[in-house]
C-alpha cells in the first residue's frame, strides 16, 4: 500500500509499504480522508513543541510513518478478539491509546494517563491507504456525517471536553477569543450546553461572519476593543467563562493585550478561563492577578470521556454534527487529492492566511 514516509524534518516521500495486519484487539481501517493538524505540520517543520521528542526518536530510528491522527475511514478487517466493531463501519479516532496499567488507568481516570501512545506520533498514523489501530480510541461515525466532517471531527470531540471542563451554567455569558476551528466549535458547543450570550472575538472577516450566521455574537477586534465591549454588555461584571483559543507565542499571561491576558481581564470574579490554544513559549504570570479575582484557569482533559450512561464526547460530537447543530464543514476550505499532496497540505495548514484557508487542509485518499 502507499503511505507517506518522513525521512527527515521537511523531507517526505510516498513509499510502497506492507499493508498492516491487525492484532487480535485491533481493526484495519481503509482511510478515506486525513485532516492535518497544526501541531503535526509544525513538527514536520522541526518546531520543538509537544511530541517533538517522540518525532525526533522516530526519525533517528530511520524512515518514519508519521502523523495522521485526524482522519476517518471504513473498517476493512477486525482482529480475532474484536466484538465492538464490524467490517464496513465508518470510524474516526477521538480518543487516546492508554497504557492500561498505571494508577490513573486502573482507577478509571484514563484521561489522565501519563503514558499514552499517540497515533501518528508514537505509532503509524493514517497518512496511508490503511492503518491498524486498537479499538480503544475509535468511535463510529453517524450516517449523516460526511467524510469531510468525519476527518474534522476529532477537534470537535476535544472541543466538547473543553466545554465540559468549563462547567458552564445555564445562561452564562461566554467569550471565545479566537474563532478558528476549535474556537468556533467551543462557542457552538457552549450554546448547546446552555450558555446565554456567546461572544466570539477575531480579526478575520469570514470566521466572524460564520459565527454570526450561527447565532453567536461576533466581535471584530480590529474595530472594537473586546474588553470594553464585554464590560459594556455585562454592566461591568465580566464574562462567566472565557475560552482562550488563540495560543501561539505570547509574552504575558495576566498583563498587556495578549489573548490570555485579555481573558484574565475580561473574566468576572470567580469565573473560569479555559485554555484551548497551545501557548508555544514560556510566559510570565502574576499570580495575584488570578488570585485576587479567584479565577479558575483550566487546561482541559484529552481524548474522550462519558457524559452520561448512554454516550461519550466522541459519540456526541458525531451526533451534533450529523444533526446540523455544529456545522464544522464551514471551516473545511481546502481538499487535496492523494497522499502526494502532503507537503502542499502542510503549507496550507501552517500558512492559512496566505492560502485563504479557514481550517487545516484535508487529503482525500480513497
UniProtKB/TrEMBL annotation:
Bilayer-spanning residue ranges: none
InterPro entries documented for this protein: ADH-like_C, ADH-like_N, ADH_Zn_CS, GroES-like_sf, NAD(P)-bd_dom_sf, Zn_alcohol_dh
Gene3D superfamilies found in the cross-reference section: Medium-chain alcohol dehydrogenases, catalytic domain, NAD(P)-binding Rossmann-like Domain
Signal peptide region: none
Family stated for the protein in its record: Belongs to the zinc-containing alcohol dehydrogenase family.
Cofactor(s) essential for the protein: Zn(2+)
PROSITE patterns: ADH_ZINC
BP GO annotations: protein tetramerization; small molecule metabolic process
Highest taxon of source: Archaea
Pfam families according to UniProt: ADH_N, ADH_zinc_N
Domain Alcohol dehydrogenase-like C-terminal: 186-288
Protein name (database record): Zinc-binding dehydrogenase
Keyword Metal-binding: yes
SUPFAM superfamilies the record matches: GroES-like, NAD(P)-binding Rossmann-fold domains
Keyword annotations from UniProtKB, A to Z: Metal-binding, Oxidoreductase, Zinc
GO MF entries: adenyl nucleotide binding; anion binding; oxidoreductase activity, acting on the CH-OH group of donors, NAD or NADP as acceptor; zinc ion binding
Domain named Alcohol dehydrogenase-like N-terminal: residues: 24-142
Amino acid at each position: 500500500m502507499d503511505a507517506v514516509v518522513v525521512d527527515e524534518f521537511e523531507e517526505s516521500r510516498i513509499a510502497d509499504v506492507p499493508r498492516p495486519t491487525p492484532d487480535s484487539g485491533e481493526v484495519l481501517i481503509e482511510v478515506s480522508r486525513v485532516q492535518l493538524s497544526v501541531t503535526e505540520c509544525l513538527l514536520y517543520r522541526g518546531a520543538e513543541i509537544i511530541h517533538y521528542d517522540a518525532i525526533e526518536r522516530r526519525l533517528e530510528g530511520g524512515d518514519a510513518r508519521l502523523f495522521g491522527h485526524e482522519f476517518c475511514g471504513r473498517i476493512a478487517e477486525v482482529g480475532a478478539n474484536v466484538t465492538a466493531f464490524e467490517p464496513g463501519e465508518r470510524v474516526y479516532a477521538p480518543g487516546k491509546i492508554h497504557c492500561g496499567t498505571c494508577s490513573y488507568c486502573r482507577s478509571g481516570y484514563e484521561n489522565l494517563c501519563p503514558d499514552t501512545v499517540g497515533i501518528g506520533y508514537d505509532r503509524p498514523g493514517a497518512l496511508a491507504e490503511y492503518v491498524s489501530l486498537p479499538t480503544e480510541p475509535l468511535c463510529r461515525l453517524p450516517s449523516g456525517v460526511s467524510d469531510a466532517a468525519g476527518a474534522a471531527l476529532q477537534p470537535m470531540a476535544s472541543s466538547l471536553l473543553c466545554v465540559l471542563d468549563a462547567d458552564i451554567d445555564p445562561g452564562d455569558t461566554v467569550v471565545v477569543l479566537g474563532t478558528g476551528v476549535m474556537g468556533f466549535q467551543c462557542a457552538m458547543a457552549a450554546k448547546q450546553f446552555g450558555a446565554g450570550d456567546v461572544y466570539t472575538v477575531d480579526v478575520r472577516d469570514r470566521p466572524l461572519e460564520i459565527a454570526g450566521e450561527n447565532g453567536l455574537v461576533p466581535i471584530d477586534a480590529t474595530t472594537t476593543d473586546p474588553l470594553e465591549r464585554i464590560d459594556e454588555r455585562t454592566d461591568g461584571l465580566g464574562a462567566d467563562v472565557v475560552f482562550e483559543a488563540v495560543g501561539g507565542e505570547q509574552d504575558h499571561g495576566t498583563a498587556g493585550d495578549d489573548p490570555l491576558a485579555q481573558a484574565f481581564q475580561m473574566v468576572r470574579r470567580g469565573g473560569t478561563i479555559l485554555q484551548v490554544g497551545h501557548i508555544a513559549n514560556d510566559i510570565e504570570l502574576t499570580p495575584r492577578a488570578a488570585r485576587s479575582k479567584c479565577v479558575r484557569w483550566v487546561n482541559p482533559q484529552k481524548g474522550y470521556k462519558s457524559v452520561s450512561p448512554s454516550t461519550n464526547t466522541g459519540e456526541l460530537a458525531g451526533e451534533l454534527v450529523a444533526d446540523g447543530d455544529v456545522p464544522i464543514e464551514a471551516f473545511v476550505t481546502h481538499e487535496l487529492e492523494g497522499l502526494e499532496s502532503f507537503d502542499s497540505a502542510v503549507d496550507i495548514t501552517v500558512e492559512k492566511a496566505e492560502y485563504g484557508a479557514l481550517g487545516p487542509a484535508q487529503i482525500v485518499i480513497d
